[in-house]
Each structure stands twice: as C-alpha cells, then as structure tokens.
Write a structure and sequence with these properties.
The protein is an alpha/beta fold and 425 residues long. 30% of the residues lie in helices and 28% in strands. The chain is built from twelve helices and 24 strands. The chain has a four-stranded mixed sheet with strand order 22-23-1-24. The termini are close together.
Length: 425
Amino acid sequence: MITASVHSSVINGTIVMPGSKSITQRALALAFLHKGTTAISNPGDSDDSIMAMKIIQSFGANITVDANGTILIQSSGEIKSPTTIDCGESALSARIFSSVAALSNFPVIVRGQKSILNRKMNFFADVFPQLNVQFTSQEGYLPFEIKGPILPSNIAINGAESSQYLTGLLMAFAKAASVDLSIFVQGLNSKPYIDLTLSLLNQFGYKVTHDNYSVFHISPSFEINERIKYSVEADWSNASIMAVAGTIAGSVTLNGLNIDSLQGDKIILDVLKKCGANIKIEHDAITISKSEALAAFNFDATDFPDLFPPLAVLAACCIGRSSIAGVSRLYNKESNRAVAICNMLASIGINCEISGDILFIDGGHIKGGLVDSFGDHRIAMAAGIAGLQSFQGVQIANAEVVKKSYPAFFDVLLSIGASVSLSTE
C-alpha cells in the first residue's frame, strides 16, 4: 500500500491532460462491434482503459499499439466462442460489456475485482429476460453469466441509477437492430454522458436519436468505411481536479482540452468563475489561477457526480457555506462516496453535513491529517489537492488507487511544484 503526503505548496506549471477514460472505454466497445479496423489515437492510459482493451481481446479482437500510442483494433464484430471477461473495478466496463456480451449466442461470464464486487446491478436481471437474454448473477452482484443473442424490441427502462446501463443497451440495440426500435427511459441522470455515447455511436455508423432523453430511437445501422479513425478527447473529469488545484494553490495551464466538448464535467469552469477564480482560455490552453478570496457557491451536481470530490475541496477553501446537491448519486460508487467525502473533510478539519440530497460545507482553514481513500481514486486525488492548502499536510492511505483513472496524478503534482512524497508499507 502506498501512502502519499502532500504539503502546503504554491503550484505553477503546464499540464497536458490525458485522454478521457470514459470515452476510451466507449470507443473500445464500439471498435469491437465494428467489422473492420479501428484506429484509436490519444487513448486514456488508466487501469479502466487498459481493462477495457483486455476485454475486447477476450471477445476476439486483435489489438496492436503503434509507436505513437494509437490502438489498432481488428475485429469481426462478433463473439465467436464462450469466454470470460474481467472488468476489474470498472462499473462502466461491467455495464457496457454485459450488454455487448448479450449479443452473442455463446455464454459469457463477466467478473470483477475489489470494490465492484460490492456494487449491486439489478438492471440486467430486470431487462435482459425481456430481450431473450439468459442472465444469472449472485443476487445482482458479479459475477454474471450471460447468454443471448439479444432480440431488441421496444422496451421501457429506469435510468435513475446510472446512465451507463443505457449506454450499453444503446450499443447493443444499435448493433442488432433490423427495424426501427425505441427505448423509453424514466428518471435518466447524467445526460451529458449519454450525449457522449450518442456522438460516438454516430461516428461508428449507428443512427440513434432521442426525444428529450425520454425516448431513444434506434434505426438499423448505415454503411460506414471498413477502417475508422477516432481521436479521444482529453479528460475533463481529471481536469476538474487540476483546475481546482490551480484555483486554491497557484496557477495551472491545462493543455489539450476541448472547450466545446460534450463531456459534462467541463461545467467545473462555470463553478470556478462564480467562486472568483481567474480563468483565461486560449484555443486548447486553459489557465486557472488563484484569486485573493474565493466565494462560497451553490451547485447541483446531480448530472455530474464525479465533480463532488474536487468541489468539496473547493468549498473547503471558500469563505462561507457552500452547498452541492445530488448526494443520492454518490451511494453506489467505488466507495459510498458521500460517506467518504464527509470522512475526508472531517479528517482535515473541515465541517460538513448532509441534509436530504444536499451536502453543506463550511469553508475554513484546512488543518490536514490522515485521509482514508476508501479505495476510491477520486477521493485520493481530492485529498491530494487539499494538501496544497493545509497547515500540517495531508496523508492519503491507499493512494495507489489513482491508477484507476489518472496514474500520473502525483507525478504531475510534483512537476508543477507541489510538495509530494510517497512511501510504501
């Protein structure tokens, strides 16, 4: 286990943001479903991205990586034998690739590791039997056994728990549809992630539209070139962590981000502006720097649950009481993220409370202390940037979990002037 220690620092530097983890996983799934060759440039290098690549190899795709890091995938578009896949700790992979597995008439076993084994996924047990898919699980927990082939039909689903289920189902329907079909969705959260999915589906030759996110229309796929080239955007979820770091502890320039991205987490810039951060945008370079005083804020993060940890640290550095709505989205993440955030804040001397669906945080002076990451990569990174403004430093236990989404996180902090040390127990 690695313990990271981050002490009070003034940071200044330029960061080239890595490719988006969530886009990379989606692109790899669609590359497998594409009959032909796909070249994916600027892929994310997180553990989740690597696991998704291994999954499509298990499905039968042939993968090579060129000298520039571009992933080349050759696929038949079909699973041609029984297989077992390992999703690691990635809920997105489990949810997407379970639907991909349902396209096959061969049995597929879906496994996972560590925290994901504690995340219940009843969606498939409710939906798959309606679509001719045999499904067994451990009372909704991994491992799953899935056997199709899926027979898509008009269906109604609940999207409140996670948009990731809909993402996987849309991919499977788009691949298998021979006539026009509709999916009726109630209570959909995280709509920006569905926008990402629809954009990728279109680029891979599928036609999916929606009526106000409540009805999704899937048409039989149109012809597309045998060879597809796709470039992954830089990751706004990881950028949000570094943007908050610049806001509270100096100045950072983030390179490679698309300001017009469909990634919802780019809304972090709006929150930072309201707090008083200095933001300068030049093409794909965004500079965020500290102001003398940061004002408390109110923000609804229901559609942006990954922003909760960095926003919690931002609120800790603001003057007054801030509120972040959407706490209900946090209970089934890598950790119970609501509990983990409150524990992190308490450990570093910041008062917070949850009332209903809202997290209230009283800004103040970050004392510092030992933080349990709860095995959650976003808690570990949030605690890391909190250390930049702490009196006594912040120590993060089980800090290696950042590999799930941003393996270079602590190295990047060091490169921009942060006081960081790592120790192995």
